[in-house]
DNA sequence: GCAATCCAGTTGTCTGACAACTTCGCAGCA
DNA sequence: TGCTGCGAAGTTGTCAGACAACTGGATTGC
């Protein structure tokens, strides 16, 4: 006979009984996604759903609670549950699986361009001497990484964080910290691209110097332009061409 | 005596009883965010939580279900509920207590100005006819709210969401949806300010029209400028003066 | 020493009931 | 006719108690 340990593994692996509420919420999610229940329409009442799926009302409530948390459904006591017109509080998940698809990467680069250029501009207006020192410090760290051939993506992250900190707005700083975890994936590409023979990090570093110079000199428009161009080039380095209309950088230039 | 209609409005406005499960999930979220329960640690068992908060186990389960949906908590039947080691969707927490302090509000308005103006610009470049229809729809919804004197903050949120959707970049759209929860607090101020005698919502609505016109006409620079000015005025309406250096709007103008 | 079993504790599900709330229709009235 | 107020029916929110399914550690037996 099997030991307890094996039985447990066996149980976990094979007979992984899915939660009823999961099945129900997935089923409902599918119905909504397929348009069988359209935005603004009312879901069947809990009792009816319970009979349909052959489960208790508690399970239905838990399933609907998940859809509520995802912002796909809104409930009004006494009225019913309705498919949300505009999903309100979607979880800010970047990708579901292991990594982003190419089209998603393009959109991420667009977002980066938008946010980072705005932040660079604000940083150029507000930076204090201490901020300049901090940013320069990480710039040198990337120089060292380049010289030794090691991975400088961490210093890269820190460099952009330091710029965000120079805005002296805790919310922008925290937003960049938050997004940073996702952006760093797109930055890491530049440092760990096979072979690094294309001199990709060197290019990026040159752009970093331009951004730093503009921020340090207190030139907002230039900081915005260089930051925007940096993201644009970073995208091209991994084979993604950003649409020409893109974002705010060009407006600031007004050329 | 009040008519039914009035009673309903009154009820909606004032006696907005919060759901128990909401209160509990927010409280738990806070405990996790403040590190009172660290990643990997087990939450108190449902029965204990029920006693602590003085509610039934069903409410606790619903609250935990929301945290599960957010990826902050994982449950294992028979073992317990645990704070997730790697939160799937990080929580970008804006304030801990009931609301932001004044200095925080100022920073939030700055962030709003930065993000919303960039998004308005991109929306003006990319919007399709269907987007214009959607945005206009929420603009009218706010008109109706103004006419009836009811709370139009929801339509206000939707208006800005629709603009974000018009960028046709799923990440910017999701970021705005995500931040929207927090921004909506600062928007609600305009609609629920005591008495509304200062004609605050009317002012805001006029600004909304300018933004809409620019986006609909496909004029990025104008959209950015009006959006930026809108946030700036919104801040002033609640008594906050944004620093003159502020953000990207002025660079786009280049006046 | 080790495998099998047991047991207390925990989450998952079920059932039934009541409270709070919304919606709609109807009777009453001007 | 138009509207007002009331109430009934329907729906979600909350409560309480029970049992099932599962986990992790302690105990037992060899």
TrEMBL record, chains A, B:
InterPro entries: GntR_C (IPR011711), TF_FadR/GntR_C (IPR008920), Tscrpt_reg_HTH_GntR (IPR000524), WH-like_DNA-bd_sf (IPR036388), WH_DNA-bd_sf (IPR036390)
Database matches in Pfam families: FCD, GntR
PROSITE patterns: HTH_GNTR (PS50949)
A GO term, aspect molecular function: DNA-binding transcription factor activity
UniProt keyword annotations, A-Z: DNA-binding, Transcription, Transcription regulation
Superkingdom, natural source: Bacteria
Name by which UniProt lists this protein: L-lactate utilization operon repressor
Organism this protein belongs to: Accumulibacter regalis
Gene of this entry: lutR
């Amino acid at each position: 006979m099997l030991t307890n340990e094996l039985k447990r593994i066996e149980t976990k692996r094979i007979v992984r009984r899915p939660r009823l509420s999961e099945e129900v919420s997935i089923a409902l999610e599918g119905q909504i996604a397929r348009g069988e229940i359209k935005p603004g329409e009312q879901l069947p009442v809990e009792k009816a759903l319970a009979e349909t799926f052959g489960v208790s009302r508690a399970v239905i409530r838990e399933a609907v609670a998940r859809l509520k948390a995802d912002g796909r459904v809104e409930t009004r006591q006494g009225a019913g549950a309705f498919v949300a017109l505009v999903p309100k509080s979607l979880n800010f998940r970047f990708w579901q699986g292991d990594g982003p698809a190419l089209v998603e990467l393009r959109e991420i680069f667009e977002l980066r361009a938008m946010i980072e250029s705005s932040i660079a501009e604000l940083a150029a207006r507000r930076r204090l001497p201490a901020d300049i020192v901090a940013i320069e410090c990480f710039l040198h760290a990337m120089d060292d990484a380049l010289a030794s051939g090691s991975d400088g993506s961490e210093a890269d992250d820190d460099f952009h964080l330091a710029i965000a900190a120079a805005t002296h707005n805790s919310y922008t700083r925290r937003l960049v910290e938050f997004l940073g975890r996702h952006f760093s994936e797109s930055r890491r590409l530049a440092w760990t691209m096979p072979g690094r023979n294309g001199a990709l990090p060197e290019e990026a570093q040159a752009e970093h110097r331009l951004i730093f110079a503009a921020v340090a000199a207190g030139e907002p428009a230039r900081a915005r332009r260089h930051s925007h161009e940096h993201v644009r080039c970073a995208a091209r380095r991994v084979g993604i061409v950003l649409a020409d209309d893109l974002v705010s950088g060009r407006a600031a230039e007004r050329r």
